Amino acid sequence: IKALAFDVFGTVVDWRTSITTALTTALILKLTSPSLPPSVRTTLTTLTTLSIPALAQQWRSSYGRFTRTYLPGTTPWKDIDTHHRDSLTELLASHGLEGVFSHSEIETLSKQWHFLTPWEDSAPGIKRLNARYVTATLSNGNLSLLRDLNETGDLGFRELISAEEFKAYKPNAKVYLGACEKLGLEPGEVAMVAAHLGDLEAARGYGMRTVYVERRGEEEWKVEEER
């Protein structure tokens, strides 16, 4: 193995805590608005006291559905920043909160995915691995998002590789094989590092090596797979 290609959301950064905190802050701040209709205030109050972690998970799950169903060459291209903005608008509307946030507020809130907190072992671990391997992102996140995560989290990745460059999303072969080609290596010389078995199974199917990293709450086990 000459290079390590890292999944980012969940594997390197703790999206769940970061996004739950961002949603909580934004929704509680909105509750202070005197012009908020009583019915919306009631809905918002219930959401902020009971369901923000679930709201964060729904937002994340919409990302998974989007990337899995994207068909290169058929589905019009949409980057992850645009998806996060559009899916947040749809998600708020489904909870009776349509129009609570302005367009610019939605834009700002959706960009919180650029500033997720790394797991505490991520930055020091990646920097140590740099002494022996080429470390790279291999994420569905767009390049500007990955650049911000790398810089603000001081992660130390030597290469930033995004699905955006191949106009496809994992688990499409173009992403895994395109990353290997960009690194100038054969698939067997690159290990995919992820906290999601589906990501690793796809990478292995294209000849890459794999490394599993267990992260709290990240694996979507089926009932029959639980131990």
Automatic annotation (TrEMBL):
Superkingdom as given in the UniProt entry: Eukaryota
GO MF annotation, one: hydrolase activity, acting on acid halide bonds, in C-halide compounds
Family classification: Belongs to the HAD-like hydrolase superfamily. S-2-haloalkanoic acid dehalogenase family.
Gene3D superfamilies per the UniProt record, alphabetical: HAD superfamily/HAD-like, Putative phosphatase, domain 2
SUPFAM superfamilies: HAD-like (SSF56784)
Key words, A-Z: Hydrolase
Lineage, opening ranks: Eukaryota, Fungi, Dikarya, Ascomycota, Pezizomycotina
A matching Pfam family: Hydrolase
Source organism of the structure: Cercophora newfieldiana
Protein name: HAD-like domain-containing protein
UniProt-listed InterPro entries: 2-HAD, HAD-like_sf, HAD-SF_hydro_IA, HAD_sf, PGP-like_dom2, S-2-haloacid_dehalogenase
